[in-house]
Amino acid sequence: MPSSPASREGQPLTATDQLAWRQHIPALASAAAGIRQASDAWDAVSDSFCDEDGWPIDEKGYADGKVTRDAEAWKHVEVFLVYGPEVLAGVRAAAHGADYVEGPVSADLRRLRGIDTTLERAGRIRHEWDQIMALMDDSLPGSREIYASQAQEIRNSEGWHYADELSSQGLALTRAAGYLAERADHDRSSQAGRAQAALARSALGIRGASPASPPAPPASNPKPPRHSR
Fold first, then answer.
1. Which of 9, 31, 47, 111 could form a disulfide with 79 if both were Cys (CB 3.0 to 4.6 A apart)?
2. In DSSP terms, which residues pair with 56 in a beta bridge?
């Protein structure tokens, strides 16, 4: 993750930057929607496992449902860990100070102030998971699958909070990114149009100029008058 995405805020993006970060916007939008779908699917059935006071009456069904929700959500968190920092840096580079105060995505840009922490902590969970898997490979080569499943459930459960955060922060990120990318396209198109118009005016000026008059021939030197004697 970039150490300080905000340090690029307001700086112009190169054409390469534009192509690099904006192509990941659809993936992040899909990931944010996927987390929300996993949450909604669980909310739709969770009450059926509980009594009127909200206490589980089918503890196994309740636990299995949360495991399914957390596993589905974590798959989308992984997408944010891969592409989120790059898109976030691109958004902050393309946004102007006034965009945070007013405009179509001002609320979305302000909502992104906490996404750095969300991505950092979710990334820490993934890093710890990678370390656990490496240890299992070294110490439990024949029993890795048995323990990996349990470790995976723990990872997904710990990551649910950050997945829930990203379902709203991620949508804000993709909305802001889409708007700023379209604005950058419009600005580049306008600049190209102005440049073409200037070239056209310059060409017309050259063609319309009157040809220069040829230089006048030098005056002949008159002979001095002859005086009679």
1. 31
2. 50
Structure tokens at 193: 């149009």
Of the candidates 87, 85, 73, which has an alpha carbon nearest to the alpha carbon of residue 162? 73
Say which amino acid occupies 140. Answer: L
Largest separation between any pair of C-alpha atoms in the chain = 148
Measured from the Cβ of residue 84, the count of other Cβ atoms closer than 10 Å reads: 26
Is the Cα torsion angle 150, 160, 112, 175 positive or negative in sign?
A: positive
CB 5 within 8 A of CB 92: yes
pLDDT digits (tens, 9 = 90+) for 97-136: 999 999 999 999 999 999 999 999 999 999 999 998 888 8
What is the per-residue pLDDT across 151-180, written as a single tens digit (0 to 9) for each? 999 999 999 999 999 999 999 999 999 999
